[in-house]
Amino acid sequence: MLLQGLIIAVIQFCVIYFISKCDLKKFINFDGGWYAHILQNGYRTDISADPSIGSKGNIGFFPGFPLMAYGFKAFFGALRIGFTNVQSLVLTAFSFSVVSWTYLSLWVTREVGVKRHWIYLLFCALYPFSFFMVLGYTEALFLSMTIGFFVWTEESLESEEWSWKKWSWLVIHGFIMCFTRFTGFVFVLYPVVRAIQLGHKKWPRYVLASLLSASAMAVFFCYLKIKFGQWDLYFVTEKKIWGTFFDPSKLWPPVSLFDFKNPLNATNLGKYVTLLNAGGLAVVGVRLLKSPEMFRRPIFPIWLTCGMFWGVNFLARTSLDYQGMGRYLIPGLFISMPYFFDLGFKSRLWILFGIILLAFQLGCAMLFLRGGWVA
Fold it and tell me: Is the pTM of this model over 0.90?
């Protein structure tokens, strides 16, 4: 599985590197520039990674990814192998991309079996926004920690004897997951729901695991309070730079989600993916209602947490004016994909669908690497 993960990550990287004309600086367009700025300067409120934004802070990003890149840079620096900030960010993303595909291979194998798991990996690799996995973005780190969080939850719950080691790995993955992206707070519910579902005698320990995982956000907010004297500076920065503030009037009707004036626009692609994901969740929900016994299987807590994750992103897209949702839905989609479709090996329709997905991915990658916004 590690070899599979390495092969997929290498192919992804080589394709994107070729499209970028061998220019790693293009790997950190847009948000990647902010991570490079944090890696170079730490968190600031008076310096911006983008000169056009003015004297705004870089605090609108969680510290997991730049901190991990700093660790890579320091480690290789100690070995007298110098990496630039850009190289450190890309190396970090690539490394955790390998981890992501390895964990995903393990996760899908658990759910659908060895014979069919590769078809699911293929469709995940063809997903239009999966090229973000090797860019200087949080996608690979967040995905690897999220899937690892689910995997170690199952490993811990399935042990006949209590294992502090497996429980600790669960907490470590959950902490880094929440330290990397704010939306990780949704997935921390999985161990609690799953433990209660199984009637596990030690379910309070899984409540503790979820709380310890979510504490990563509190750590970041405490850091902001200590350094800048304002714990909610993250939210303030988000509002100042991107204008994101909660507007319940935009929730219904969700005009921004169903506005398709430019069908092939990159942000509209995120809308298609959003609606496709919602359709898959609805199908799984119907299956649950038709088969009550399925509520006792992992499919229920997965459907519940991934559905909530979709809801949070939907809220962000409609009421917070986030542009696109394609890459943000990677974790929920990849984790729940085995339950969405009954994929066959001889279906020409699925082959055509895969070709379309690949074409969109290559198109989005070229647009992004040429300075176009793709989310």
Answer: yes
Residue 218 CB neighbours (<10 A): 12
The dihedrals phi and psi of 158, each to the nearest 5 degrees, come to: -85, -10
Whose tokens are 């990814």? That residue is: 65
Judge contact between 63 and 35, C-beta under 8 A. Answer: no
Spell out the residues 6+ positions from residue 119 whose beta carbon is closer than 8 angstroms to its own: 343, 345
Least confident of 89-98, 111-120, 197-206, 261-270: 261-270
pLDDT tens readout for residues 39-81: 998 998 776 666 556 556 789 899 999 999 999 999 998 888 8
Looking at this protein, which amino acid is placed at residue 374?
A: V
Instruction: For residue 346, give every residue at least 6 positions away whose Cβ sits within 8 Å of its Cβ, in sequence order, or none.
Output: none
Long-range CB contacts (within 8 A, 24+) of 333-336? 333/127, 333/273, 333/277, 333/280, 333/306, 334/104, 334/124, 334/127, 334/143, 334/147, 335/107, 335/146, 335/147, 335/150, 335/302, 335/306, 336/280, 336/281, 336/284, 336/302, 336/303, 336/306
Check residue 285 and give its pLDDT. 86
**Spacing of C-alpha 338 from chain mean position:** 17
Report the chain's terminal Cα–Cα distance, integer Å.
29
As given in the structure block, the two tokens for residue 58 are: 């870089």
> In a 10 Å sphere around its CB, with 0-12 CB exposed, 13-18 middle and 19+ buried, how is residue 256 labelled?
middle
Which residues, 6+ apart, have CB-to-CB distance to 353 below 8 Å? none
Round to whole Å and give the CA distance between 175 and 116. Answer: 32
- φ, ψ at 325 (rounded to 5°): -150, 5
Q: What is the pLDDT of residues 15-31, one digit of tens each?
A: 999 999 999 999 999 89
Reported as a single tens digit per residue, the pLDDT across 158-187 is: 888 889 999 999 999 999 999 999 999 999
Alpha-carbon gap, residue 176 to 99, rounded angstroms: 14
